[in-house]
Amino acid sequence: MKRFLPGNVSRNRYGKKAAALGSFFGAAILCCGCGGYPYAGGQKEPVQSMDTAMGTMISQTVYTEQDAVTDGILQEITDLEEQLLSWRMDTSELYRINERAGEESGIPLSAEMADMIERCLTVSAASEGAFDITIGEVVRLWDIDSWAGLEETSGFGLPTAAELREELSHAGYEKFRLKDSVLFLPEGMQLDMGAVGKGIALDKVREYMEQQDDIAGAVISVGGSVLTYGSKPDGSEWKVGIVNPRETSANLGYLSLSGQWCVSTSGDYERYVEVDGVRYHHIIDPATGYPADSGFSSVTILTKDGLLSDALSTACFILGQEKGSSLVEQFGAEALFVDREGNLVMTDGMQQYFHPYR
Ligand code: AMP
Ligand code: MG
Q1: Which ligand is nearest to the CA of 143?
Q2: DSSP, res 202
């Protein structure tokens, strides 16, 4: 059974405070509810930082004695981008993989990359190709990332149907083979891990924090993906805001979470270009080559695994609520969908965590 909530959301004091952060993140970390800073008991304030990496905002709130810990966490994220996942930087493994597309002897992968691609393939198969990291060339053709957020977009051109057909003909997760960590990537195919990078970053950050002795709790946001870790000194729950896609400076509500969770949101408000009143956003439906049009403006996934939360948020955005809900069920995750009118619909399990602002 799904729950529908009204689209008009009034902002209370709590919501206003959330709004300031909400303008930065797909899913915003809320300070409210942790007692304000400094918080009750006179204990040490958390270490906080705001940076950019992976082409997005990184926000950290860490309860620790170690002031430099946020530098270490940021370094983990930039290393991940530079060494593994960037399709732009020639220092990354993904860049080198893409350069070698078409090699008949195959491309040997690091164990880490092989594992990530393997896991992406599982989500591709389960989502019937809605999530598909092989559509790199289609994403490049749209080039939304380069245009999003610019005031002057008159130079932006739509790809032609013929161009899209051509690039789509090289894509398709079922066309490549991965065997014993050797990847056979067909000529013309390019991988793009933009739909899982932020979630993988959360997994990396969690591993890093587990290796530190003195981190009691933290909440880390990498763009639209948020990791909660450990607990707050006052024992209250972590609050992660759900952005209103049609008024991104406000939140529709928040998730109240204890312990370790990953929350990833995919939304049509994150990166887009508007031409003649039509919004072209960054999430492409591999079935058409065009920005996905399932009637939803955002999807938020809650699960314990970062890569999975991020992959599922992209897949569900494309699939819509009905197919998306059965997809997340297969992976034991929860989902919250916001449609274009601002109505919310969520899986049963999400209801215990989500608190709407009414
Ligand atoms: P996200 O914001 O996590 O939904 O990821 C969107 C990013 O993933 C885009 O900027 C593209 O780089 C890439 N992408 C777009 N469409 C897809 C898709 N159908 N499957 C996999 N990756 C995609
Ligand atoms: Mg994603």
Answers
A1: 1
A2: H
